[in-house]
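Feature request, filed as a ticket because there's no other form

It would be nice if the structure record came with a short human-readable summary line next to the tokens. Right now we just get the raw output. Example of a typical job, pasted below so the devs can see what we mean:
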Amino acid sequence: MGFVAAAKSCILNSYKYSGRASRSEFWWWFLIFIVLVVVLGLIMTFSPRDWDDASAFWTAAFILFYPMAFLLILWIPIALAVGSRRLHDMDRSARWCLLPLGLIGFGVLFFFFALNLAFGGPSLETAANVMGICGLASFAAAIGSTAFLSAAGSPGTNRFGDAPSV
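Raw output as currently delivered:
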């Protein structure tokens, strides 16, 4: 399955949690997501900012953080759908897709903990360290999930349907 076919399949099956998805469909979707995240991350990293006061921080958060949050909120249902179908291709339950969401929840809690440290706690450096730890944990979860979703699918028909066309 090529890029155009994979993108079309993901768009048409964005909220379809039944059936099976091939590895190529998953990888093309994953590549699109990573490119979008990297582009937004680079914009966030290299944009000028002054975080010395709270109003500047919230202005930067509105301009820089919210587009990334919007992308993630938009992408999570699609990720769950393509991940569910990918797991179905390996004859596994879609419940395995929920594991990274729990880690994302911990990341959000740590983000607010870091904000508290930045504006009412010891220092901005401590908050940055907490955010770095959350980033590393999320990265490790992403690597583990990706390795899990990269396994070959079961040949032929399984309990979730026919094998996807490659």
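Something like this underneath would help us a lot:
The longest helix spans residues 54-89.
The chain has one domain: 3-149.
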